[in-house]
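Field reference: sequence -> structure
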Amino acid sequence: MASDDSNPEAGTRLARRDPVADLERIAFLLEAANEPTYRVRAFRSAARLIARLTAAERAERERAGTWQELPGIGEVLARTIDESMRGEEPVYLRRLEATGGQAVEEGAAAICGALRGDCHVHSDWSDGGSPILEMAQAARGLGHAYMVLTDHSPRLKVANGLTPDRLNQQLADVAALNPQLEPFRILTGIEVDINPDGSLDQEPDLLSQVDVVVGSVHSELRMEARLMTRRLVTALANPHLDILGHVTGRMVTGNRRRPPSAFDAEIVFAAAKRFDKAVEINSRPERLDPPKRILRLAVEAGCRVAIDSDAHAPGQLTWLPNGCDRAFRCGVTIGSVVNALDADELLAWTRSHET
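Structure field:
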């Protein structure tokens, strides 16, 4: 029998794929999913460009890593071509094939139908407009099995953040309300500020008592990228944190428009994956955070996600389809969505972070 050494494609080297065919297939599936024309055009144009290169030119660009020197080839296209040249099915293509070209409306509806609850909800205890019971009744009326009450932490004074004493009182009030709502459940939680050093803005003992901790950046959003990366990774490493809320902090509408915070998404999402924390897909129309290009990186890293309304009033609980649409477009699978778990499964996951 001949040894593997006699076969140039054996061992760690995979058989070559055709990057032109892969790019054209991606364009076809994007079209089938009714994605924006400019995205389809980008992949088709890249396919035509690569088709004009000789085998030697392709090999040299692969060796030198110079795909992005070609016109119209950005980071995502370059990574897709590289993966194909290495003989791997490109991650972008694999994600699209998983949806089978399913219409966005159908795919998003399937994700919405799988959601059992909402992990980011505010009440009038902080900056919400309605009492806890009213929010819970509205969530139950929408068919949810639970909602996680996540009022703000003390540092966010503008939002009437909860001091330790007030959070303790809220925990007692939720315990008294839950018997009235069975089998629906209010799960206790908090949206805790991630401080500039990455620490969490609430007493650790209290964080260990609540069911779900969403951690978000609300200050110094223009922090230098290296420092913001360290800030987010430090928070993700904290055993009390479960979900990284509105990760880039961007605002896309209204008077408070602001660009996404700068950080190394690959490092941050690698940390989320390592510590088994979820990245939030925030459904508020003015946030729609993270941007799809960032969300795709989280999906490629294998992160869990939480599709949340960040509701501050009962009617805002209906915003979850915004997040489900973005989730489907970016290749999120139902199995990666933490609020597609039932309440006991969700709690088993959050409790695993502190063991």
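Note: The mean pLDDT is 92.
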